[in-house]
Amino acid sequence: MDGSPLRFKATFGNEANTLFLRKALQALIKSETPIKEVKFDKNTFEGITRDGRSGIFDLACTDDNDNHFIVEMQYGDAPYFVQRMNGVARAILRLA
């Protein structure tokens, strides 16, 4: 899979034109509502899970109904994914 991370970033990480990314995310979450905006966030919440790992919010999205959601995109294996998402959820609740 040599070069795959670069292809992944070139396909999904184009901040100048997010049309393909927005359409792909909409299909992935099986939503009838188009995604109108994707912001590439690099915010890290340090040590929010039990094992001290951080959660990185890669994409902050807004759909046409003004629903907001966060997408973490990662190329490769994601050990402790459920634990990380539990920590991310707690961090979001603290911000609300």
Automatic annotation (TrEMBL):
Domain of life of the organism encoding this protein: Bacteria
One family name in Pfam for this protein: PDDEXK_2
Protein name: Putative transposase/invertase (TIGR01784 family)
Record organism: Runella defluvii
